[in-house]
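Minutes, project check-in

Agenda point 3 was the complex the collaborators sent over. CS summarized: four entities, 506 residues total, and the question is how they sit relative to each other. Sequences were read into the notes so everyone works from the same version.
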Amino acid sequence: MSSEELRVKSAGTMFDVVDAIKELDEPTVTNIAEHIGVPKSTAHDHLTTLTDLDLAVADADGYRIGARFLEYGGYARENMPVFRVARPVVKRLATETGEHANLGMEEHGLAVFLYKSKGEDAVTIDTHSGMRVPVHTTAMGKAILAHHSREYVEAIVGEHGLPRINENTITDRETLYEEFERIRERGYATDDGERVDGMRCVAAPIFDENDDVLAAVSVSGPASRMHDDRLKNDLPQRVKSAANVIEVNLKYS
Amino acid sequence: MSSEELRVKSAGTMFDVVDAIKELDEPTVTNIAEHIGVPKSTAHDHLTTLTDLDLAVADADGYRIGARFLEYGGYARENMPVFRVARPVVKRLATETGEHANLGMEEHGLAVFLYKSKGEDAVTIDTHSGMRVPVHTTAMGKAILAHHSREYVEAIVGEHGLPRINENTITDRETLYEEFERIRERGYATDDGERVDGMRCVAAPIFDENDDVLAAVSVSGPASRMHDDRLKNDLPQRVKSAANVIEVNLKYS
DNA sequence: TCTGGCGTTGGGTAATACCGAATGATTAAT
DNA sequence: ATTAATCATTCGGTATTACCCAACGCCAGA
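CS then shared the predicted structure for the full assembly.
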């Protein structure tokens, strides 16, 4: 997990513990110790430390992640200019389309959901704000990567690869680069069930004043409602327009 | 800052660094080192580690908190049963009142905003989800504390005190306990500009099946609109009803 | 070219993260 | 009531490392 050589090594095990809490769902000390392969006492050391720092909480059934992470997360988000500006626009996009509208960015080679707004008809969906997914499996991620240099993309692919999530995932480098070209031509990206079966998304990139891509907005919904015409005409127009509004507002903020 | 004796001491300095990033707004290595009183090299060690772990990002102007915190925060929130159930109810409360509606809980002696929904007329407000504030300065915090044992409250006050935020803050133990009694009688708590001048809030506690208090819902708005009648009749009723709906839904989930 | 401020690197050492083993605490089973 | 089993917790030794100092390299601006 934390195989890389970290300068402060204990931080690696500490976040192995945090990840274990996340993955195991209300685990006990012993559970965690076994999961990450350390003695109980070590896990205990880290868990008490995390608890003292308000980063974990010992509940009746086991440990859970502390609300202090919410504070840091909220702060991280609130301090991104693009988030402040984009939030109302994304919200409106959700209202207008009735589907889920999202704001996302790329960080450390992963696509991060910064904000999600739920439209009237939106189906339940597995994403939540803060969630991180492989870039190549989302319309947002592809919209962003398409506007980065080839070296930039290669570095990410080199580190994370192109893992297959389901049968529609693009796992071939060349196919991906061809898709990027189409995305640049059309000005928007799509995801046709490439991460979640039956879900289709449309995304448009957001640029800063130097034409560097900052983030992306997207709309996602079930294939039953996201028929071809809507996916290729109405929604791209709306999503691109939303991205444009965000860009303009960014310039004057 | 991290004066307590931690089992994993380096975690203390690590989160001193994280807090420094938060407080200083895009600081450099040197800024951070000075702020927390360690050599540059130490700050650098922690910052590179944080960056390797995706917990911090080196931007053009300096460091900022990484989006991985968003992931943990989102996860912490999504895994609280009360949050899932309460979200739609709080959203509706915001729509109906036109003001800000909030969901909050107490953790480690601080009030945590879990969710905030913005009504039509809502003014800009300094809170954001994940934010933590002294319990005694919010209606939500008081609604929760009023239904805890005296020892529980004493422990919190002993650790955090009753810091004065503005001229309306309750800083006297006895005054606070008297207010708690009133809160228990009426079934709701108020905040009359005790944290932010000119802001008034109404909050109601949410109980679990054992009548232990879990969280609280609140509505907050500018004093100009939150006149006495609304503050003491209409809103308490709405907030209490919302809390009740959440309680019922919690039982069957 | 020089100077000042920055981030970065490397290595020594005092401090500690990690571990094994023993001890409590709790619950279930006999 | 007694035992057994499983959990969290405590404690102290030691190999490891977090921390620091000092030196270096880099870039602007003078």
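Noted in discussion: Chain A touches chain B through 51 residues (CB under 8 Å).
Follow-up: revisit at the next meeting once the mutant set is ready.
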